[in-house]
Amino acid sequence: MNAIRPIALAAALLVSTSAFAENLVVNGSLTGAIINNGVPTGWTIFEGTPDTMDAHNNVGVTGQLRFGATPTASTDGGTWVGLGAYGSYMERFGQTLTGLQVGQQYTVSWEAGNFGYTYGAVSYLGSNAISVQLDGLSIGSGDQISLGSSWYNQSLTFVASASSQQLSFILASPTQKAYMSIDGISVQTTAVPEPGTWALMGLGLCGVIAAARRRA
Length: 216
Ligand SMILES: [Ca+2]
What we know:
The chain has about 220 residues and is of the alpha+beta class. It folds into two domains: about 1-20 and about 195-215, no CATH class; about 20-95 and about 110-150 and about 165-185, Jelly Rolls, CATH 2.60.120. The strands form three sheets. Strands 2, 3, 4, 6, 11 and 13 form a six-stranded antiparallel β-sheet that branches. Strands 1-5-12-9-10 form a five-stranded antiparallel β-sheet, with no helix packed on it. The protein has a two-stranded antiparallel sheet with strand order 7-8. The chain has helices at about 5-20, 195-215, and strands at about 45, 50-55, 80-85, 90, 90-95, 105-115, 115-120, 120-125, 130-135, 135-140, 150-160, 165-170, 180-190. About 35% of the residues are buried. It is globular and about 70 Å long. It is built from two helices and 13 strands; from the N terminus they run αβββββββββββββα. Calcium ion binds near residues 29, 76, 77, 80 and 183. Calcium ion binds near residues 29, 74, 76 and 79.
């Protein structure tokens, strides 16, 4: 390999990493032990009894396969958190974000699935959406998702009003009896490439083209 190729690759890598901001969420992958009524490290339960689970352990119970629809693995992989809603019984969990810049816009993104729970007369098979709260107030919801095997990428934005704010997730509709899954949570500054970034991207592209020409 000649010298120009590693340099061009390094430039391209630098550009690709500098274009993405840091994830402000701790353990956004929701990695933790399977547990009924428990959330992974870095997260706190605020209402009800959310669970840490995966495709083989519904509602955080080891070996439990009482799903309404067979789950697939999320893009994030590993464990995730399940949230139920049934009238006045709601489940909500989250964490406090720190290091926010007041006035800065952030994008919250996550994956959502609706695999439900069913056993005998007990069934959580309704459609619902995942609502995002900041300091206990809703800032919007993801898509309404009906029972099925897929995960869906969801996101919405907010403007920070303090350097530290509590982020949490809850199902949007209390009346639609449902049990949904969430994984791959991130909060990042909304990406707006600055002039300097564009210049770097141009340099990186020149390097890649130069390397390609030398190879040819
Ligand atoms: Ca995960």
